[in-house]
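Extended Data, record Endonuclease/exonuclease/phosphatase domain-containing protein
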Amino acid sequence: MAGTITFMTFNVRHDHHDHSPTTFFATPPSKENPVDNKEFEGEQPWSIRKWKIVDTILLYSPDILALQEPVYHQLQDIEALLDDEYKWVGVGRIDGNREGEFSAVFYKNEVLKVKDWKTIWLSEQPDVVGSMSWDARHPRTATQVTFVKNDTVFTVFNTHMDHVGIQSREEGAKLILERAREAGKKGAVVLLGDLNSTEEDPAYLCLTNGKYKEKKGSNDTLANLQELNQVCASAYSEKSGQPVRTQENHITLPTHRVIRPGQILANLKKQEEQRELDKTSQNYFLDAHYELASRLKSKGRPGTLSGPFGYRNTLTSFGEGTQDFDRAPIRIDFIMPLESNQFNVQVRQSAILCNRFDDGLYISDHRPVFAKLSW
């Protein structure tokens, strides 16, 4: 067992506007009244936003942090503020060094060790630095990192797909799937990133093989209130031996399990048939949001969440009048473990966290996504 590992993916918004200083620890602009939330409406400079971005990272303390869009001086800021607890890998998408946006992977140095890593360009020439293909507006990359924890090997991909090119996203998804399946022979694989794809987009459908076409909102807490109440009442009644009244004229009574050898043999045979079928099938990515081991799926097991925590969407924009305002809010940031019978990744927690509080500041135009996985 690799134990439990926590993941966060966060598009922190680039900082290469014409007015942006390109030095780390740049002086933030002064505000006349810092307690007035109108002072912080719209997109604020990185020199203001970075503090609460790093606070979010420190508060949730992920073992692995996948960032999209930062340029080099932003990474210097984050690295300095996180101090020695985290190290990171990644390159700029333009020159394979420091130029352009990064898809950087930070990791807890005391928990994980990097076995190897590389950057691939989502193009017809994935090993050519700065390459771009199909209908992409910019060069796009995926950072592939192989980690070791207690002799357990696993691989992480962090990507930021093109915001314009539908074909480039789909072809990029195929490339990542190919590389992930190869890495999956050695250990578990987890994809994180801003896919710029909703659940209806070809890239998402390619990565998940269309598994969630009819499941949008299916495991939302508020969509399952009656079922959640009933399974939890049944679990409590079975554990305590006490009847529970869940609704008018409905009493949940303790039950006793009956062991039926014939049924056990039938289940074992079915599992063996499924294993043989899986050997000849291709693996796809699972959406942690839907694969959460919730109270409903676990039949009321204590300690499990009622559903994905927090918000439903990840792209918010910076508010009215900004570039993405018309298409927000949508969910385009994901954490996705690769299917594997051998490693069987379990989603223990899944959450979309806050990017704006009542001080008025959007720390980014995306919300961070958090998950706790084990295998």
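Summary. DSSP finds seven helices and 14 strands in the chain.
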